[in-house]
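Practice problem: Enoyl-CoA hydratase-related protein
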Amino acid sequence: MIELQHDEEFAVLTIRRPSALNALSFELIGQIGQCIGQAGRSSARALIITGEGAKSFCAGADIKELQNRSLAAQREGAELGQAVFALLDRLPIPSIALVNGFAFGGGCELALACTLRLALPNAKFGLPEVKLGLIPGYGGTQRLPRLVGVGRALEMVMTGRTVGAEEALSMGLVNRIVQTPALDAAKAYAREFSGHGLRALQFAREAVQRSVDLPLSEGLRMEADLSTLAYRTRDAEEGMQAFVDKRKPDFKDE
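Answer key — structure tokens:
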């Protein structure tokens, strides 16, 4: 099952299927989509995604579900995973993958879809689909090179090898390695930005994420547009006035 809880100012989505290393069935993927929507409609300042237990964040797709399916069903499965994980791009709050243990296949792709990634020292990342005669289908071939570069992404996808936490940090796959208690560490990390106005955070995320798809000249125009929109928010007025007054701003997400 997928559980969504509110912990202080955060929404916490937990994959609870430890008996199968938190592997994703199509039903669970649908539940993840529902929970992402609920988190976006809540008062949470960030969404933290993790897996139950110390052994696995998410070991990927449920292989038994992938067998003996029609071509149309195979396509629909890939599109479902892509569509659900893409919801994180449109989520009005930032998302953080808190990776505890295995993040393989679809689990790695779920982490890649989050805004930011934290890893415990035992975290292991991989896209091993090639070992089954397959390739990633939930966005891994597209998001991984945007994070780590084409060469490193090709190596991971073509060899299917596992990357540990330290290597993942060095190659830019994760933002930080954190210690236990992991959820406390994730909340502390989220508080480094969750106090800022959500409008500014949304504009910042959009500007950076869209930059990889645009030539520099077009990206600069897009940045100017979003920067101008940011100036028109009440939070910008409050932030600048607070700076002049030498006080902490009181953002209202407006």
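Discussion: Residues 71-90 form the longest helix (20 residues). Students who identified this feature from the tokens alone can consider the problem solved.
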